[in-house]
Design a protein that fits this description.
The protein is an alpha/beta fold. It folds into four domains: about 1-150 and about 320-380, Quinone Oxidoreductase, Chain A, domain 1; about 155-290, NAD(P)-binding Rossmann-like Domain (Rossmann fold); about 405-530 and about 680-695, NAD(P)-binding Rossmann-like Domain (Rossmann fold); about 540-670 and about 705-725, Dihydrodipicolinate Reductase, domain 2 (2-Layer Sandwich). The chain has 25 helices and 34 strands. A ten-stranded mixed sheet has the order 19-34-27-28-29-26-30-31-32-33. Strands 3, 5, 6, 7, 8, 17 and 18 form a seven-stranded mixed sheet that branches. Strand 20 (about 405-410), helix 16 (about 415-425) and strand 21 (about 430-440) form a beta-alpha-beta unit. Helix 3 crosses helix 4 (about 75-85), helix 6 (about 155-165) crosses helix 7 and helix 6 crosses helix 13 (about 320-330). The radius of gyration is 32 Å and the shape is elongated. The relative contact order is 0.09.
């Protein structure tokens, strides 16, 4: 792909061919439609790059201070090499764009492939054909808003944050000094809020534009026209707020602000102008000087911008992302009009020439847009079909030895599922000793020890993995830790039972299998319990062996999660389907007697309700409908399997039936649903005790995990995903 870059040492501008960024979890890959040149911020950076080294130093005294500190710490030669290396490298330009979502990363549930989004950030909304943008730095574009207008979202957010800092109220009067791009937007936002606006700028064309967009009066700050307009609108008291949206080295804006602001008025700095405050003037009026930091709360906070951790709306009403969405909404409803601000639209290939014309003054502009070419049919045809690797397991197995004494088990994690679905079945089982429970908090370990009779409770995982008396380890922690803990336990020579999911990414899955190959230990079971359900086992037996392709439908009425559930932490714990979907894929594959070869997945807006279609080698298909919006009173799981003139039906593990030459209907279970946990644990303990085969072949566990990962890949790519077996 192509991207606009600049060498800060030489000032060279170029459009480079660079690799396409990967679509990481917690964000989306966006193909740019329009990106906006900030004729203030970006041209200042371009101009600085063309200066001499002395000029650069004078323009950035903050960076000079860092260099001097480095000299004191590391010496002159090392500092020189570091500074020259940093200067003599390409840096990106741009921070405001609109584009189309091309891929969706794990943990993202509010947009889908093909959605139009506005993006922000000087590291993520660059002048480039493709950008990876984290969740809190994009927002969907409202219906009806043109992409070229949505590209103003970031600069609109900057203007909006400045206005919020001023705290305008209905009927007040404000002065906007500097009528460039930000100033023009501030004028419109203030007018929309019921504030009368006076503008100040030496350019008569910009003054005329501001008046056409809602300003009551505008003029040259050096003339008497601005002062006269303020006196007329305020009865001689002065304006309630002043917004400094000017740049340059003149101190005139802050002096004008003091002269025209009322007693105890507010002065908000949005731009980057000189701020030598005249002490007497500001002191005598007790002026409230405020600064507006970029797009809003969240800016420069890596946990917000990169990790997707939002601020609670009850504490921070207008965050960076909410400002972005609010500005787009105002533009979509016509309260803000950005079309008159567009002075020029250039093709992206002409980016270098456009910057040069702006720098030289040949192109006079308030706002300039880059227009990106749409992907050609040829380029789309060359795009490789999405696939997820299904690694083949090739391991020199160490023979498993039977356990002479009672099987000694350790649990890593003692949360709700472990204490309600696993430990009650194991605590009273003959031939089993609950040896050690490991948790991250001491109290939870102590509670599990007391309730289920563990011999020991600890927070030291390494001590458990190094204990030769422990035969098997249960990993029942949060999803993000499953793969790493499983890998460590396998390398320690333990038989491992890990709750689903085994892994949240292809890399994690590969890491687990690397541990299997390195250690020769393939004694692994994933908690896919439904295939062990006595009711489903009986139904499968009654259905019999099939000869032709089958069609399976699995409806999962998952329901809503409670607010605050850690399952909703998709940025770290994976999507909800990634955590639970392996159950249903494993059940389908077990019933069909094969592993899937491709996966196609689609979702409603927000990726909460999914349709997953699995295709199998003999032409059989399985459709899993995973929905969160169904009624709570409706059964959670219903399954139908049809083949060879026969049909099997499972009703929520309460009743099953088979229709064919002979009809069979089970009696309704009098007790709670048995989803197979007890039988699964019995099979696992037997395998540990006897040294026999694990209850589910490792190849099957890997195939189910890969198919689960392919669901998210399919949602991101919008096409069927091939499950490619590798050696």
């Amino acid at each position: 792909m192509k991207q606009v870059v600049q060498n800060y040492k030489s000032g060279e501008l170029a459009v480079l061919d660079v690799p396409v960024p990967g679509c990481k979890p917690g964000g989306v890959l966006v193909r740019s439609a329009y990106s906006l040149i900030s004729t203030g911020t970006e041209l200042m950076k371009v101009s600085e790059a063309g200066m001499s080294m002395l000029g650069k130093a004078r323009s950035r005294p903050d960076q000079v201070a860092k260099v001097m500190q480095s000299v004191a710490t590391n010496g002159v030669p090392a500092t020189y090499r570091k500074v020259m290396g940093k200067l003599d490298s390409y840096t990106p330009l741009g921070y405001s764009l609109c584009g189309v979502v091309e891929q969706v990363g794990a943990g993202v549930d509010d947009v889908k492939v093909g959605d139009l989004v506005a993006c922000a950030g000087n590291e993520h909304a660059l002048h480039a054909e493709l950008n990876w943008v984290p969740k809190n730095l994009y927002t969907p574009v409202p219906e009806g808003l043109a992409p070229r207008h949505a590209a103003f979202g970031t600069v609109g957010s900057i203007a909006m944050q400045g206005v919020r800092q001023g705290g305008p109220q209905l009927g007040e009067v404000a002065l906007v000094i500097g009528l460039g791009l930000i100033g023009q937007l501030v004028v419109q936002l203030l007018s929309a809020a019921g504030v009368r606006v006076v503008g100040a700028d030496p350019d008569p064309v910009r003054c005329e534009l501001a008046e056409s967009l809602g300003a009551a009066a505008c003029g040259d700050p050096a003339s008497a026209a601005v002062e006269a307009a303020v006196a007329e609108l305020t009865g001689g008291h002065g304006v309630d707020q002043v917004y400094l949206a000017a740049g340059g080295g003149s101190n005139q804006p802050v002096e004008l602000a003091a002269r025209l602001c009322r007693d105890r008025g507010r002065v908000v700095d949005i731009g980057k102008c000189r701020l030598d405050l005249p002490w007497n003037a500001y002191y005598e009026k007790e002026l409230d000087v405020r600064f507006s930091r970029s797009y809003g709360p969240g800016r420069y906070d890596p946990e917000y911008e990169l990790e997707g951790r939002d601020y609670p709306i009850g504490y921070v009403r207008w965050t960076e992302r909410r400002n972005l969405a609010c500005f787009l909404d105002l533009a979509a409803r016509g309260n803000v009009d950005v079309e008159p601000l567009i002075s020029h639209v250039a093709d992206f290939d002409d980016a270098v020439d456009t910057y040069q014309r702006l720098k030289d003054g040949d192109l006079k502009a308030v706002a300039v847009l880059f227009r990106y070419p749409a992907p050609t049919a040829e380029a789309e045809a060359e795009t490789e079909a999405p696939s997820v690797a299904v690694p083949a397991v090739d391991v020199r197995r160490r023979p498993a030895r039977p356990v002479k004494a009672p099987v000694r088990l350790a649990f890593v994690g003692a949360g709700n599922y472990a204490t309600s679905m696993l430990l009650p079945h194991l605590a009273q089982r003959d031939g089993v000793t609950l040896s050690t429970v490991v948790t991250t908090t001491a109290l939870s370990a102590a509670n599990a020890k007391r309730k289920f009779g563990f011999d020991e409770a600890t927070t030291d995982l390494d001590a458990v993995l190094g204990d030769d008396s422990i035969d098997a380890v249960f990993v029942v922690t949060r999803h993000s830790s499953h793969a790493d803990l499983t890998r460590k336990a396998l390398l320690a020579g333990k038989t491992v039972f890990v709750e689903k999911p085994l892994a949240l990414s292809e890399d994690e899955l590969a890491g687990v299998l690397a541990a299997v190959e390195e250690s020769g230990n393939d004694r692994l079971q994933v908690g896919f319990n439904r295939r062990f359900s006595p009711l489903l086992q009986e139904a499968r037996k009654r259905f019999g062996t099939r000869t032709g392709p089958a069609h399976l439908r699995y409806l999962v009425n998952a329901g809503r999660l409670q607010h605050g559930s850690w399952y909703l932490q998709q940025g770290t714990e994976g999507s909800r389907f990634a955590g639970e979907g392996g159950h249903f894929i494993d059940t389908a594959s077990w019933l069909l007697g094969a592993d899937p070869v491709s996966v196609y997945s689609v979702a409603t807006s927000g990726n909460e309700d999914l349709q997953v279609v699995l295709r199998y080698p003999d032409g059989s298909t399985a459709t899993i409908s995973y929905v969160t919006t169904g009624p709570a009173a409706f059964p959670k799981e219903t399954l139908d399997l049809v083949a060879d003139g026969r049909a099997l039906r499972l009703d929520d593990f309460v009743r099953a039936s088979v229709y064919g030459p002979k009809k069979w209907i089970s009696s309704r279970l009098p007790k709670a649903r048995d989803k197979g946990q007890n039988a699964e644990l019995a099979a696992f303990v037997k395998a540990v005790r006897t040294g026999g085969p694990m209850p589910v072949p490792l190849d099957s566990l890997v195939a189910t995990t890969a198919a689960t990962l392919a669901v998210q890949a399919g949602l991101a790519g919008g096409a069927p995903v091939t499950l490619a077996r590798t050696r």
